[in-house]
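Quick check before the chapter quiz. The format below is the same one you will see on the exam, so make sure you can read both the input and the output lines.
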Amino acid sequence: MVNFLLSVTFACGLVIAVAHVVNRRFVAPVYDVVANVLAFGCATAASLLLDHWTPAALSGFAILCWLILARRTIGALSTRELEVSARK
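Here is the expected output.
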């Protein structure tokens, strides 16, 4: 039962992360990226310790999505800094 509940929880988180990745205009705030990578990292570790492979895989894929979003966020922040320095 725990395996099922964890799988549903992490599948929902994965759907949200994938939706953010697919929406190319979405730029996640830095705190959101950090919090989600940390949360899904802990979820992956806990699932692995409990030998719950499906939830571990789902949360692992969510980490991958959030790392893609982190790259997008860093790119957006760099672009903004360039635009601000060009205006000066």
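If your answer matched, good. Residues 53-87 form the longest helix (35 residues).
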